[in-house]
Design brief:
The complex is a heterodimer. Chain A is an alpha/beta fold. Chain A is built from eight helices and ten strands. Chain A has one domain: 3-Layer(aba) Sandwich (Rossmann fold). The chains are: A alpha/beta, B mainly alpha.
């Protein structure tokens, strides 16, 4: 669960948000939409504590992000980015196992339970048979799914995804969106992801969040999604 | 899973055996011709004349032991820097450890008139150590508020060049004898270490290895990129500084006592990756230690047989490996 209160946010000299408030419930999936440079990534980074905020508060399951130490944050929120790894010989299973890092000892040794969690995560994203594949041999779509499995393995209430559909072909985009919806419903995760692909998002999400005029506006995707997009972007 | 474990197990045992064999071969080679049987007698049974004992135990055994330590330390340090900088061409010297050490030694040998009396007493090794630690401290200071690791890499390279320029100035104005001692130091050797030096080398290396042990999990977490590592609760600044310190202790100490041994730290992590086909730093570090020790023993044997400086041998062996690695098709390299 994410609660944003009177948030002020900027990057460089540009103001992204001013006195913005919004709330995302458990089991809610929301697509974050805005023009290039409007501050989608900045907002997501702020929620992840990667960026300092100017004013207001962000709460994750009731914890003020600004005051939450990194090791606690790692159990509240996980991220998925499209950046591919340069690591050689890393298998899908090992990559997903890395998601268990917040729970393992100082050497990173994993328990039977960790392996179980990882196998469940892989089956959630339909990649059980990919476990021993080299992560660099995966297509972009498969890689995205593996990274989502890693986030599932991290076992956090909230998952933040920065443009998970950016480099994907059309079927893979729908697959990812469907997967995220399933995750929100079955595992009661709170999911926010930034995207430019409205058509793909609209069937999968509960709400659409728009950064417009330094405000964060939320719309019901079922009711007035398409029209709001038209209004926001003036198309 | 178990097949991978078996392979790693087999590889570890095979490399350990190879290391033992090379270790014995390294002791057996040298300028003084000695019967192999006789060497074993001196070594294992403690027989032989004082002269024989001094050649075999004090010189050759020490030299082989130092080759093992240097190979292991430089390889671990190379793996650390490649992981930290996410760059396959990073090595123990990217942070200016060797140029810092060169500066220390150059100042000691050639800049003596410039130095106060106290500093002339400290010896070449301490001068090298202080030089590399100073350059590293400078980098850590400058990069304290820098997030992008690429920038730190560039700062490291620039500082190395700056130190290099200063060393050249010293070289230009120095006399022939001092210049020659400096050039010989810069060619590196593992043969000048005494058992007295070991009282400094061993604690420094042990501390470096312990720090490396503490960084194994953080290095694994960094495999997917710094963003992921931080989101999984990693304190990136602490990890960075621990790795810097570990590398100074490992590569800095070796450079101080043996001179700047090139290419081992750069090439061995790649060889270890090829051999183990594993990404876990726990496995890679083990394989790195063994491969590094084997490679440097080989280089030492080669340099003894051909009476070449050890850097020639490490270049001959290291450079082809690196060229092979970077020319492989779209190979990920960390």
């Amino acid at each position: 669960m994410i609660r944003i209160e009177n948030l002020g946010l900027s990057y460089g000299t540009r103001t992204v948000l001013k006195e913005a408030s919004a709330q995302y419930a458990k089991g809610e999936i929301s697509a974050l939409i805005a023009r290039n440079g409007a501050g989608k990534s900045t907002l997501l980074h702020a929620i992840c504590k990667e960026k300092e905020i100017n004013a207001g508060h962000i709460y994750l399951d009731g914890n003020d992000v600004a005051k939450t130490p990194a090791n606690k944050m790692s159990k509240l929120l996980s991220i998925v980015s499209t950046l591919r790894t340069k690591a050689a010989n890393l298998t899908v299973k090992q990559a997903v196992l890395l998601g268990r890092s917040p729970y393992t000892n100082w050497l990173g040794q994993h328990s039977v339970y960790d392996i179980e969690v990882v196998e469940n995560a892989l089956s959630m994203v339909n990649m059980t048979s990919y476990g021993n594949r080299d992560i660099n041999s995966l297509s972009d779509g498969e890689f995205s799914r593996a990274m989502i499995a890693r986030a599932i393995a991290q076992d956090t209430g909230t998952i933040i995804l920065d443009e998970p559909c950016a480099f994907l072909d059309i079927p893979s985009r729908y697959e990812i969106c469907r997967l995220l919806r399933e995750l929100a419903i079955k595992k009661m995760k709170c999911i926010i992801y930034s995207t430019h692909d409205i058509d793909c998002a609209i069937d999968a999400v509960d709400t659409i969040s728009v950064i417009d005029n330094c405000q964060l506006k939320k719309y019901d995707a079922k009711k007035d999604g398409r029209q709001i997009i038209k209004e926001t972007f003036g198309i | 899973m178990s097949r991978i474990k078996h392979r790693i197990c087999f590889l570890t045992i095979a490399l350990s055996l190879l290391m033992v064999l090379l270790f014995i071969a390294d002791i057996a080679t040298g300028t003084t011709q000695m019967d192999f049987h006789r060497i074993m007698q001196v070594l294992l049974l403690g027989e032989g004349t004082p002269l024989e004992r001094s050649v075999i135990v004090d010189i050759r055994l020490m030299r082989a032991f130092m080759a093992v330590l240097a190979g292991a330390a430089l390889s671990i340090s190379g793996l650390q820097m490649q992981t930290l900088f996410q760059n396959p061409l990073a090595g123990p010297y990217v942070l200016g450890i060797s140029s810092g050490a060169s500066l220390g030694v150059a100042l000691f040998l050639m800049g003596a008139p410039l130095l106060p009396n106290v500093l002339r007493e400290i010896g070449m090794v301490t001068a090298a150590w202080i030089g590399s630690a100073a350059v590293l401290a400078l980098i850590v200071c400058i990069s304290r508020n820098i997030k992008d690791i690429m920038v730190i890499l560039i700062i490291g390279i620039m500082l190395s060049s700056a130190t290099g320029a200063f060393v050249e100035v010293l070289q230009y104005f120095s006399n022939e004898t001092d210049l020659k001692s400096f050039v010989i130091w810069s060619m590196a050797t593992v043969g000048e270490v005494t058992s007295n030096d070991m009282t400094i080398i061993l604690p420094a290396l042990v501390l470096g290895f312990i720090l490396n042990l503490l960084c194994l999990k953080p290095m694994n977490m960094m495999l997917l990129g710094t963003n992921y590592a931080v989101s999984m609760g990693l304190n990136i600044k602490l990890t960075r500084n621990m790795l810097f310190l570990s590398t100074t202790l490992l590569a800095g100490t070796i450079t101080a006592f043996c001179g700047p041994i090139g290419f081992v730290g750069l090439a061995v992590p790649h060889i270890a990756r090829l051999l183990s086909r594993h990404s876990d730093r726990k496995v890679l570090c083990t394989i790195c230690i063994l491969t590094g020790a084997c490679l440097l023993l080989c280089c030492d044997i080669l340099s003894k047989c051909l009476t070449l400086p050890i850097n020639t041998a490490t270049s001959l062996m290291g450079i082809p490996v690196i060229i092979y690695i970077v020319t492989r098709k779209n190979a990920p390299m960390l």
